[in-house]
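Blinded run. Sample ID left blank on purpose so nobody reads anything into the name before looking at the predicted structure. Input follows.
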Amino acid sequence: MTTPPTPNLRQPTLSAALWLYFCALLLTAAVQIGLQANVEAVFLRLIAALFFAGGLTWLFGRLSGAPLAPTLGRLPPLSVLIPAILIGLLAWLPATWLILATNTLLNTLIGLLPPPGLVAEGALPITIALQLGILIPICHGLLFWGFLQRGARGLGGNGAATLAAGLYALFGLVSTEFGYAAVPGLLLIGLLAAFTVQYTQSAWVGMAVVGGYSVIRPLIERTALETRLFNFLGTTPQALFGGWWLLLSGLTAFLAFLILQFIRGGRVTPTETPPAPESPKKAAKRETLPPPAAPDLGLGRAWFIPLTLSLAFCLLIGYGEWAARNQNPTATPPLAGPGSTIVPIPMTATPQKP
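Blinded prediction complete.
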């Protein structure tokens, strides 16, 4: 297992981490939304992740004097990385179900969005898998499981993990093509990744979880395995909310949770040595000293300002999605048809005006 970073090294503050998140959110949205009509989607994600998640995190680390290496923790052994990847693989099905269920409800209550394209269209699936399963999770891991989760340490272990997971899910509004339908599924993946980071004190383990989840779609998209899988699970809203979808999603989520508990049980806890007995002179001197100052929680100044700005921007994106869906109200169609993608989200083309 890994050990926590050396305490005397400077670590990021929550304020700096949230300003970094806000900048990455804005820049990623500008690139994804501004260029999505002319540039291939996965290439856009890779460029945004390299420059605005990984690159900005490195820059903020240099400017704040908090080096990335101790923030990320040590690279864990394969006995930890392999279970973390397995968690991501198992969580793919329940996360996909959450995306489908949320999108079906949004389609029914508001309207439809344009259908997402294929991630591996015009490129080798293994090439896209390397980008989605390794490069992009590493870049996002620098931001979320390294800089941000470490910066939120003043909220406690569970609080830091929950905040990092929630902001990771909201980041899916600009880093994926599913809009608000992606948030519940990414929240599940984010929670699994963030808590593995908390238990191992290594951001690399969180990257492994996200990589395991992200690598499945490009590898099975438009393959016989995809066809057999969704034919077995069913491609109607009735099948989505009952039967095999719920059973297999619940089973794989339970297995992912068990592996998470295995990682938790194997974490290293520092051994406490009993303090040496104090002499009467030292005890009297200690009693005359002023009380120690309150510990520095690493929150920084006005950390709630970038958090509020980020949430407001996410609400603005939500308003844009609501407007786009509201322009295309229609009855909910079947979940998938010919040429469906790996995530057969129920969408149809915008009706033509008479």
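Unblinding after everyone has recorded impressions. The two ends are 65 Å apart (CA to CA).
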